[in-house]
Amino acid sequence: MFEPHSYESVSSWTHDVDVIVIGQGVAGTCAALEAQRAGANVLVLERASGGGGASALSSGIYYLGGGTAVQEACGYEDSPENMYRYIAASMDPLDPSAARDFAMGSKDHFDWLEAQGVPFERTCFKGKAVFLNDTTCLMSTGNEKLWPYNLAATPAPRGHKVAGSGENAGAAAMQALLARCEDEQVPALYDCRVEALVRDAQGRIRGVYAIKDGEGFYARANRGVIVTTGGFNYSPEMVKENFPRLSPTADPLGTPHNSGEGLRMAVAAGASTTGMEGLIATASIYPPGQLIKGIIVNNCGERFVAEDSYHGRTASFIMEQPDQEAYLIVDEEVFAYPEIESAQHRLVDGWESISEMEAGLNMPEGSLQATLAQYNEDAARGEDSFLHKDPEWVKPLDKGPWAAFDISFTRSIYLYITLGGVTTNRHGQALDTNGGAVPGLYAAGACTAHIPRSGKSYASGMSLGPGSFFGRKAGLHAAAAAPLAD
Amino acid sequence: MFEPHSYESVSSWTHDVDVIVIGQGVAGTCAALEAQRAGANVLVLERASGGGGASALSSGIYYLGGGTAVQEACGYEDSPENMYRYIAASMDPLDPSAARDFAMGSKDHFDWLEAQGVPFERTCFKGKAVFLNDTTCLMSTGNEKLWPYNLAATPAPRGHKVAGSGENAGAAAMQALLARCEDEQVPALYDCRVEALVRDAQGRIRGVYAIKDGEGFYARANRGVIVTTGGFNYSPEMVKENFPRLSPTADPLGTPHNSGEGLRMAVAAGASTTGMEGLIATASIYPPGQLIKGIIVNNCGERFVAEDSYHGRTASFIMEQPDQEAYLIVDEEVFAYPEIESAQHRLVDGWESISEMEAGLNMPEGSLQATLAQYNEDAARGEDSFLHKDPEWVKPLDKGPWAAFDISFTRSIYLYITLGGVTTNRHGQALDTNGGAVPGLYAAGACTAHIPRSGKSYASGMSLGPGSFFGRKAGLHAAAAAPLAD
Q1: A295-297 and A279-282: which strand pairing?
Q2: For residues B403-420, b (16+ Cβ closer than 10 Å) or e, as one string?
Q3: Residue B434 pLDDT > 90, yes or no?
Q4: Percent of chain B having pLDDT more than 90?
Q5: Longest dimension (CA), chain A
Q6: Residue A72, beta-bridge partner list
Q7: Is A96 in contact with B385 (Cβ distance < 8 A)?
Q8: Is the dihedral of CA A116, A99, A479, A6 positive or negative?
Q9: If you average pLDDT over residues A399-407, what whole number do you get?
Q10: End-to-end CA distance of chain A
């Protein structure tokens, strides 16, 4: 059903524009604004009754750096080169050219977002959090301070949270961007579901077939169609295919419209995909940060990930453990309840001795005892020679009683988003399996392959940041494309 | 056909021992020696007419460190901690406990190998090579000097080549180890193909069913069966399933007996697998080292991997490029023919200008020109801000004419070995999908999941080094296991 329709068979077009943008989340909004400002006639087709998409439901964190106004105001040193070094070292990006463009243009992109009215405070949060319940802006949201990445680039916080309140601050950014679209009269149709791309005999994408109010119609795009339809985490079929080991307790983030249809249309029209097995899942143990002083072990009683990792990295390693089980072990001094209640990390029990805890958790005899003995010996010297957790979070866990939280992937509630998607280049052009641009087809945002390939290297804001950045790129490139002729 | 036979149905046993070792490559040999020395009755079953396996056909590089006698004699500083830091930073090992055991025990393991008669010179080679055609021992065979890993651990060469001559020096090590087996009368049957494991009603592995001289027989193992049957690169079916994008021009390394049967028997008996998608492929551009001063670009004219990467890492990135195509670009000053002739990197042509080269290689207009302009600008400052190639290999490529070698995965001859396999723990026990040990079943060597998960993090010697190390572990653990009773 996602096969492109034949251009030559279309008898009438209800719309005839330069650039069609499918989807009005952050990537689509930025693409549409840039394309129209560059002189193109634009038409946005959005499936929901209004713009915003998953971006508006998100916590509103944009990964940006290189010395943004906020970083500067808060006294953090960063540079485009430093930001790129972090990305290159930690993410092994598939397309380092695009990753570098993003790092090099990130500071200016922040200014552009702010110029559109997206509100960012000049404030920062120095603790460990996943999202903030107030309007504070800057926060570390990745593995910048994690060994060995902290050796490759000077750690700087790059999570720029929009000044909206609560977990859904993403809406504040989208309100501003959508207001711009309205001010500038960017044409948009809502409750409009695109069902297929239209392709001509030369393989060029020339428009779309869409449904609105029960009526099908064709809209022609003479310079390009930009797909910005978000991730595929609400497609049970694609999720099952790409993530065979996903827990039934895992829940998708985003909107039900993130059903992967735009991606499938692009693929049916000749685009290739990249990194479809990439997933970021989260059920953070922090806040409070003190829990990072605990240790995370698998059901063999062994540590396997530095506890100060970004929560998505921790989740990725938990997913690889035997039975996907893991426990957070704390002593009385460190004990606290994880604050993110939605994760449902259950307190298993408390025990007077480590050997009782080991038995209570059904771990092999001596395993957890050996792990804790070695950890505590290291910790007494203020180090973690095994997994290189930062000394800031290292203390001997020797103040019993001890307690364990069950943070298993199979039992806690992990929220996830998909990271793979359409292969694109730095201009936002969709690429075919040979690496050539599919003529007339662009893609940006969560329907494309993210810069980080997996939850191990993800950082919060690596969807909205690059999504908005490459949305702009796609809009500009499409607007500048030579109009297609018959 | 790989389903285990029922122990209770076996009416007679032709052999009744403590430990059965399947395969007599390096892992099996080390396992058998250690098990027998620990007092176990051992039986080795080898499919070929003599011992050695793929280990004897290899270039004989053992990845070892932590301050071995050779490292010390050659003036290199290394420590177990330093070696572990390199592995942890570059390989993201699935089982850091096992990886650390390997690093911590590596120096002693070198001494043990030498005590068995495996010959290692106190010599080192400081250049860039893939294998050595003489008996020189020590060489850098991984990404130790590559950014950012060189920040996480002090670079030290850890490839210890056996003092045999040529590309197949691996035989010299196996001759020594097999001589030990003969001296110590480790029982072995040759031309003997194991067809199935034998499992009892409690799920414990109790022996094997094998064929020799056309006759099937059962051999009982009361303490354990150790599977050391090598990789699966000679199983077209498993290769096709796990590496859908493998080039038809790629050739497997090893012996035709690396058909994955041991792995499939272990899986059929309840073992899980890990990292089956891992592959190390090689068709190195060096030697000569000067070619590293060239740049590697894809068919979009863009660089994507630091050229001083270990050749297996380079290959992994080439495999991800559009059409899996890549070119090595050199100027007249750097020009040389790649010395490894088997790789068949074809000289495409020479050109008087970069724009002509770009056209000659069918790259998008301006693409290669932009890449070289930026590279040369950086190189003039003695740096590579894009991919962080070490300054040692950076010089402007501005002395025309220019030439290109086709190093595409799809056209050159890449040799590969598989990296995934049976999931094991640090004792060499085979693990089930829940992380529990499959009673009575062990595995070591190339039929198990390697410490490096992919060619991006592999280092030459990471098969023979850990294979021999964990082969010993498995032999010792099996010999010490309580004998199984009915």
Answers
A1: unpaired
A2: bbbbbbbbbbbbbbbbbb
A3: no
A4: 95
A5: 79
A6: none
A7: no
A8: negative
A9: 97
A10: 26
Q: Give the closest residue to A231 by CA, choosing from A469, A420, A425.
A: A420
| ipTM metric | 0.91
Q: Of the candidates B151, B323, B435, which has its C-beta nearest A300's C-beta?
A: B435
**Closest C-alpha to A132, from A54, A71, A59:** A59
Q: What does the pLDDT read at residue B486?
A: 62
Please indicate whether, in this complex, the C-beta atoms of B100 and A386 are within 8 angstroms of each other.
yes
Neighbours of B216 (CB within 10 A): 12
Measure Cα distances from B30 to A69, B43, B180 in Å: 61, 13, 10
In the predicted model, what is the mean pLDDT of residues A300-320?
97
> A288: cis peptide before it, omega within 30°?
yes
Hunting for tokens 């040990």 — which residue is that? B437
DSSP conformation class of A198:
E
Kindly determine whether residue B89 and residue A148, on different chains, have CB atoms separated by under 8 Å: yes
Residues 6+ apart with CB under 8 A from B439: B202, B203, B204, B205, B484
What pLDDT score was predicted for residue A386? 97
Backbone angles phi, psi at B427, to 5 degrees: -90, -5
- Report residue B119's pLDDT band, with 50, 70 and 90 as the boundaries: very high
The answer for residues whose C-beta is within 8 angstroms of residue B278's C-beta and 6 or more apart is B418, B419, B420, B449, B450, B452, B453, B454, B455
Q: How far are the Cα atoms of A317, A335, B281, B469 from residue A362, in angstroms, in the given order? A: 21, 21, 41, 29
Q: Under a CB-based contact definition with an 8 Å cutoff, are residues A5 and A209 in contact?
A: yes
The pLDDT assigned to A486 comes to 63
Task: List, for residues A373-399, the tens digit of each pLDDT value.
Answer: 999 999 999 999 999 999 999 999 999
Nearest residue, CB atoms, B435 vs list A299, A434, A436: A299
Q: Could you tell me which chain A residue has the CA closest to the CA of B457? A: A92
Which residues from B are below 8 Å from A when comparing CB atoms? 81, 84-85, 88-89, 92, 94-97, 100, 147-149, 151-152, 298-300, 302-304, 320-323, 325, 385-388, 425, 431, 433-436, 456
The stretches of A49-156 forming alpha helices (DSSP H) are 53-57, 69-73, 80-91, 96-115, 149-152
- In sequence order, the β-bridge partners of residue A45 are A22, A189
Token reading at B360: 């000659």
DSSP B446: G
On chain A, the residues whose CB falls within 8 A of the CB of B95 are 302, 304
In whole angstroms, what is the distance from residue B478 CA to residue B440 CA? 8
CA–CA distance, A33 with A102 (Å, rounded to integer): 19
Residue B114, amino acid: E
A148–B151 C-beta distance less than 8 A: yes
Only one residue has tokens 């008669």, namely: B117
- List pLDDT tens digits, range B218-250: 999 999 999 999 999 999 999 999 999 999 999
pLDDT in tens, B393-422: 999 999 999 999 999 999 999 999 999 999
φ, ψ dihedrals at A108, nearest 5°: -65, -35
Euclidean distance between the first and the last CA atom of chain B, given in angstroms as a whole number: 26
Q: What is the mean pLDDT of chain B?
A: 96
| Nearest Cα residue in chain A from B424 | A322
**B-chain residues near A367 (CB < 8 A):** none
Minimum mean pLDDT range among A155-164, A165-174, B192-201: A165-174
pLDDT > 80? residue A167 = no
Q: How far is A320 from chain B (nearest CA, A)?
A: 8
pLDDT of residue A433: 86
Cis peptide before A322 (omega within 30 of 0): no
CA-based nearest residue to B255, from B283, B230, B228: B230
Interface test with B, best of A90, A97, A410 (most B CBs within 10 A): A97
Mean pLDDT of A66-73: 98
Nearest to B486 by CA among B197, B196, B198, B200: B200
Query: What pLDDT sits at residue A128?
Result: 85
